[in-house]
Amino acid sequence: MSSYVTRKTPGDTAWFTRDRFGMFIHWGLYALPARHEWIKNRECIPEEKYQRYFEHFDPDLYDPKEWAKQAREAGMKYAVLTTKHHEGFCLFDSAYTDYKATNTKAGRDLVREFVDAFRAEGLRVGFYYSLIDWHHPHFTIDMLHPRRDDPDAFEQNKGRDIRIYAQYMRDQVRELLTNYGKIDVLWFDFSYPKHHGEGDRAWMRGKGKAEWESEELIALARELQPGIIIDNRAELEQDLWTPEQRQPLEWVRHEKTGELVVWEACQTFSGSWGYHRDETTWKSPEMLIRMLVNTVSCGGNLLMNVGPTARGYFDHRAEAALKVYADWMKYNSRSIYNCTMAEPEFEAPIDCRLTQPVDDEKRLYVHLLAYPFRFLILPKMAGKVRYAQFLHDASELLFEDMENGDLRIQLPPIKPDMIVPVVELFLE
Ligand code: GLC
Question: Is 244 in the pocket of ligand 1 (CB under 6 A)?
């Protein structure tokens, strides 16, 4: 058994750390401008102008069964969908707003179809729910709000009562955790308690657990779905630490106690969470696989994001990225699922990452991020390996114990046709 002990979590994280790999899906009206999900903030778009996206939202090619199939084939075991992002538009049929998919040309509850389709493919489902809401009339104007530069922002803010908005969030979270069956993950986003205005905008205060009334919100979620996993972005510690758009190189620890924690890195295929037509920083196939391997080798989960188009499908770039995962996971998922950071006694060779099954200390996986010439040297492993093979084709790899205590594995001079070849070691 793995010797690593993580800080106790309120939710059921056993399946989560076993499954390791999930799909994030950022979908909303922002798919129409197709230039980042923060477009309303970045271009300070007024309601009346943003309304055209509501009027033209017509995802006629939306087929969540196809989404779910691609997620499963990519090796993803769970999926988290934005039920509402910062723009305030709801993909679900909420009784508390008219700003929802059922009132657009879509004319239906898109979340319902998402949960049905992904469950049918055997994936667990999670909801992302934005704490930020640039549409709600009681969400007070602050330094992130699209109205922040309006000369009359102070006047506009009069009459806005954040407590009414906090109640709205509780009402919607109740709908989401009551009407759609078992929900495995609740992903709030995000708090900025110290992000205040200055000078004549000093009245624009940041928002955190006090404004969200996070204690009540989370208590409600846990009352409705007791085992649910909740992230840490409502400014209250819960189950998940959520490093974003960066690659931790060691197991994430609790900032105060130093304990190992359950953590999930979330990343985009390109530079945008929402569909971005003209964004070109798409990650290479090597980067995609290395991210997954790096994350699991440090005891974490990876949540990779897709931004569907406003027609409702994954564009060719996203499909190609998912195919990279599908091709690699088909042969190498044994080194990812139910695996974690290798025991401390094992030292990773240069340009390699190690993973080990949580429940089998006689197995070790060596991921070759760079392919060595002819030999792979495993430090201090002489006498510890019974058998070695490439994981992808189970072809034997011959090895010898070295006098200095290392183990030397012979590798074919030509790298196998595998983005990151994995050596599977059966230990004495
Ligand atoms: C950041 C972005 C937000 C995105 C989230 C995903 O908070 O601002 O748009 O949904 O990251 O983790």
Answer: yes
